Every structure is written in structure tokens, then in C-alpha cells.
Amino acid sequence: MTLTIGELFDALPERFITEAATGLERTLQWQITDEDPGVWAFEIKDGQGRLIPGGVPEPDTTFTTTSEIWIAVAEGRQDPMRAFMTGKMKVEGDMTLALKVPDLFDTATT
Questions:
Q1: Residue 109 domain flag
Q2: Which residues form the SCP2 domain (predicted)?
Q3: pTM for the whole thing?
């Protein structure tokens, strides 16, 4: 069973790996652009992660893609670098932070 995009983002705080975020105080944001559009931010502060539905005005890194691509990335079925390199996902802002995202969250299991 595949998660919906909303379920995927609702589960992010539970999948957050606090040890990987030591010393990190940044905000990630996802802009989903297809049939189930939306914006979600994830604030990392003091080793804790907090989901912010609707996003924030100035995230450090923004991922723009479809729900299909992001769910595949989150479930480990799509390589995020390949999605970026083939234009299926756009990344704006702090690229170093973007590269750390796979280490910050456990891959979703279905």
C-alpha cells in the first residue's frame, strides 16, 4: 500500500533521525505540484524536527516535484539525485542541506 502525500508528510516527524541533525538549525520545504498539491516545511532546531503544513516564507532548501516522484523518493524507489538530474525534481537554496536529507529521515516502509 502506497502512502498518500499527506500521510507521507504527517509521518515525517516519526521518521526524523535526531542523531543525524546534531547542530543543524535549518528548514526544509516541499512544494508538491500535481493533482494533490500542497506545501510542507520541516523545521530542524535543537535536534528536534517539526512539520509545518502550509510551509514557511523563507526555507533554507525547497524541493519542487510531483507527489508521485516524492513518494517514490521517500519509499526508496527513486534515487533523489537522479530525480534532480533528470529534471523530475527541482531544488532551490542550500544544496549541501538538500544532500543531507536522505540521512535525516528513515525511508518509509509500506
A1: no
A2: 19-106
A3: 0.91
